[in-house]
Amino acid sequence: MKVYFGENLKKLRLSKDMTQEKLADAIGVSFQAISKWERGEGYPDITTLPVISTFFGVTIDDLLGVNRAETEKEIVSIIEEYDNLDDNKFKKQLLDQLIKKAPNDFRVLLRELSYLIHFCDLQENLARINAIYDNIQQNCNIDRIRICATRHIIYLYYKLAKNNDGSVSFETVEGILENMPYMRDGQDFISCYIYPAEHPAYYSKIQEAMEECIGLLDTSMSHYYLHDDKFSLDYKIEMLEKTIQIRDMVYDDGNYGEQWQSMIYAYGYLGCFYFEKGNHEKALQNFRMSAVLAKKFDGLARITIMHSKLFEGREFDKHKLGSAYVAGFRMKYLMTEKYPLSDAIKQCEEFKDIIKMLES
Fold first, then answer.
1. Residue 290 burial by CB count (10 A; 0-12/13-18/19+): exposed, middle or buried?
2. Which of 72, 207, 302, 314 has a 20 to 30 A CA-CA distance from 339?
3. How buried is residue 72: exposed, middle or buried, by Cβ count under 10 Å (0-12/13-18/19+)?
4. Using CA atoms, how far apart are residues 197 and 185, in angstroms rounded to an integer?
5. Angle, nearest 10°, between helix axes 143-162 and 106-119?
6. HSE toward the beta carbon, residue 179, CA cutoff 13 A
């Protein structure tokens, strides 16, 4: 159980506008002891705790932060569940729980900010969004939270700039973006050469960085060519096939880790492109491959151990892709409802067989 004594003592002292020296005199210890306790480098003798708690008018449990420790454990559990959901309705329910339990916690505020930007009406919530963002930037001392909040605000301004209503220009977006850190300043990159080889997390940190790089490569490449009419259909097909080849080379054991979704969708996109090109045989081959991988993913245990050459021994938790994510259900929906396919191909026996596979 984590104890928050030092942090709580400092808050109580400051609430009375006392220096460490004055508090030390009041409870009969040295100011060096107060300084040490507040830094978390030690704790008072058990006989001193009642003196401190009486002086501040709090219980010993409150002084030690025992209740806070239990609350913290519960908050961390709800945050983990929230982050693993891709169902907006359930996310809202969990977010409401978090806000009720810890309305001023910066981790909770970050998730509220993200939810308002990505899933709610922007104009209705703009004042709240800006208030949360300003609070995080001015008062939060955790770099990761501040940077992540900025990333969400960039996306917000990007959406507003696209509306062309004059409220935000793309130059505003660029200005914020230029102050964001480069990849080389991120945790993943730096961890690769900071962790000593004998550290138990050495290999997992490097593997984590490699997966991040592969995900970034996939995202940047697809944004470059996939939805851009500047590139020909043949070029898009060739590039998609190359990204699949890259992942097959890296994940040579067939467990695609955090790239499972991308692999499944890549074959789906290929099917659509081959259909657009008029090659129905190739289209159906790729739809089938997408369905095979979707069913394989759904059949995985939640936790699997990867055995590819680069990721040997790495643990993959498929809930990282969303605990409610069912690949078979998703691909059936895309193939039957969203992909621009003709009724003729949907009525052919092979396509029906693929859909049956996804339903099973």
1. buried
2. 302
3. middle
4. 21
5. 20
6. 12
> In sequence order, what DSSP letters do the residues of 9-21 get, joined into one string?
HHHHHHHTT--HH
- CA 64/CA 52 separation, integer angstroms: 11
Q: Which 3-state string (H, E, C) describes 42-83? A: CCCCCCCHHHHHHHHCCCHHHHHCHHHHHHHHHHHHHHHHHH
Q: Please report the pLDDT score of residue 151 as a whole number.
A: 94
User: Partners of 315 in the beta sheet?
Assistant: 305
Separation between Cα atoms, residue 104 and residue 321, nearest integer Å: 28
Angle, helices 143-162/170-177, rounded to nearest 10 degrees: 160
* DSSP reduced 3-state for 348: coil
Query: What's the rounded Cα separation, in Å, for the pair 262 and 350?
Result: 24
CB count within 10 Å of CB 269 equals: 20
Count other C-beta atoms under 10 Å from residue 198's C-beta.
6
* pLDDT, tens digit, 9 for 90 and up, residues 147-197: 999 999 999 998 888 887 777 888 988 998 898 988 888 888 999 989 999
Residues in the chain: 360
Q: Which two three-digit tokens encode residue 339?
A: 């992909």
2 phi, psi to nearest 5 deg:
-80, 140
153/147 Cα distance (integer angstroms): 10
The number of C-alpha atoms within 13 Å of 40 and in the hemisphere containing its C-beta is 6
Say which amino acid occupies 276: E
pTM summary value:
0.72
* Per-residue pLDDT tens over the stretch 230-271: 999 999 999 999 999 999 999 999 999 999 999 999 999 999
